[in-house]
Amino acid sequence: MLCIIVLTVLFIFPIITNEMSNLFKMLPGYIDDLTYKINDIKNNYLAYMPKEFSTVLVKRTNMLNKEIAFMIDAAIQSIISLTGHILNLILTPIITFYLLKDKDILKSEIKEIIPEKMRGRFSKILKDLDGVMSKYIRGQIYISVVVTILTSIGLMIIKVKYSVLIGILAGILNIIPYFGPILGSIPAIMMGLIDSLYKGIWAFIIFFLVQQIESAFFAPKIMSDSVDLHPITVIVALLFGEQFFGIWGMLLSVPVVAMVKVILKDVFIEV
Questions:
Q1: CB 168: neighbour CB atoms within 10 A?
Q2: How many whole angstroms separate alpha carbon 258 and alpha carbon 232?
Q3: Which residues does UniProt assign to the signal peptide (predicted)?
């Protein structure tokens, strides 16, 4: 962790701050360029299409613009609301300090509540659950890192501006099922379209390929190794959770299955 922090501060953090600074400076110009590109596509390419097709395409384009504007607004609102969680970041180390300081006292008080004959098994269940959740969180971090690296490299290959910043954003947003990858792809596609239509298309293709590679190869393998579940079990859990509980089901299905497995194992196997 110390090596990662040092490398981040020395190499990655300056790149991120530089790209963010340049992005905020150039953002008004990028918006104007993107608007010009869209109008140019409408005037040049749609002029050679049948009137009915052009009408439908314009209608769908307007709907897409509204959806993109809605997602961008939602992303901005999320970033703004994120500032409200800064207090939690400040309180977290304080609470952690007191929990660690009084750990033995808290343990003894919890043990007093549990009947003596069940304390050994109860302690083992809590310890195993803690291990599963820790591995699950680490697995999510590994997947985000993989998405960040693959996205950044792909965007660098086609020379999209702010590729590292966009890759990091994509890795963070990838934790959110469905909407996360979509929100992460918007900045890359927009930056690509500013340069050319083909670069915007290639940016979309890169995001699509990264998501396919991540969901088909890395996610099941990393999650199965992290929570000690077979890749098929992970996939089935994700499908079941999405089918019955939507986004929250996809977020929580794997850790819930892993926790249930731990509890059943500890309950039916002697300590």
A1: 23
A2: 13
A3: none
